[in-house]
Input
Amino acid sequence: MIPDIETSTQAFVNPDCLQPTCRQYEVCEEACPTPVSLPWEFAEVTPGMQVHSVKYFPSEIAQAVANTGAVYAERVQDNLPGSLTFDLNLGQRVGILQGQVPRQGGNWQVVYQLYDERECPVITLTVYIRSGAAPTTRCPEPEEFTWNLRGLTPGKRVLGIQPFPYELSGLVDSLAPVRLERVVDNLSEGLHLDISLEQRRLMLQGVVPPQGGSWQAVFNFFDSRDCSVIVLTVNLYAAGEQPQPQPEALSAQFTYWRATPQCEDNVSHSLFLQWSISGGTSPYQVGPFQVTYPDGQVVVINQYFTGNQGTISVNYPEGGQLIVRAQVRDAQGHTVTMETRPTLSACPTVQGPVLVEIMKVNLEVHAWKYTYQPPATMTRAPTGQRPEELKVPILIVGEERPRTTPFTVQRTMGSQVTLQAPLRIEGGAYGRSFRGWLVWYGDAEKPVSYEGTTDRRRGVNSLTIRLNQDVRVVALYADIIG
Output
């Protein structure tokens, strides 16, 4: 028995390939795979700082891009503040963050859809950018005030209350401290000294040692920002006259430090230091300073101070704990060394050498003509035809006059450009009409087609693209057939 024609056809032809399709002369392709979702913790940035950071893809993301054959990326969502921009360069495998970080900090994310050559979405990449709370406002240098209490009688009990001197009370009015801390004192065991900020008075009680002497107490006054605004030194003298101090030994210690980020060339932080010195013979000199960085590097800073505070500059943008030592010398040439261990915050990092290579990209613009029959819309280059290069005036919006194709310009990576092509040009028997755009991103072998936005009143079609890598754009035209 001879099989009929329909039975024979079903035996040799896959019926799925006989389904109607808008793409002519193409073989059936497999369905797009399910996109892979990948996170990228890009950066932890400092609030209020200017940032320009370039980072390569982590190995996991770079491997996924290679495995899936992703050729271009499209931003689908972001909640970045207006002062920050983020761009993804798929060709260079880098992300670029730049701009001013808001002082209030925050957490933001940018979502990209990555496509392969078949225009299938293959990766959903979510980039996270985080920032903590804003740093405290920089504190001013505190005011110093010395309060001398003389006339204490050796061996006698004392119970006294002294109001703040007029000058000290004026400082409290203008600087508005809200709390104080005792930094150091060397009072004898039988004496007790307290300061009441609310009542603006000093209270001294106890028994003055029978041998007399001199003592000192130092207080730090802090305002509502927790900045040290007043350093009060109270000196006590027994026997009615200020004796020449004759301590057994010179001693000194750091009492306070504050590291303020500068993040400039050769200076990452300014380091404000306070100290207390007793014994020996005044006046005292503090310096030089020896700084040991976390990597073991030792630097000597030849700065000298005669008061009880000073500011030095250090340079370790990576952040970490320092060891700071300073020499103290009295009038007799006796020396001691004091030590403290301040901690630096990290400065934002920029991978400078990469920026030189990727800051500029090429925009190459052509106009091509194909033999094409209406009424279909041209959204891709017809197969089997070689294009004819046309000279067409295409305007880059923002420039004064159009450029004639073909032409190439350079623009900053991450910038956005809008091209405008005329809807109708001269040529052929009846002229030529605009049919669409083709765009090649980076090294992609296949273009992405766009219809653009038509403005018939002005007679142009516009295309807006972001230049994250080298881009080739072609405006397609076809002869109008009467």
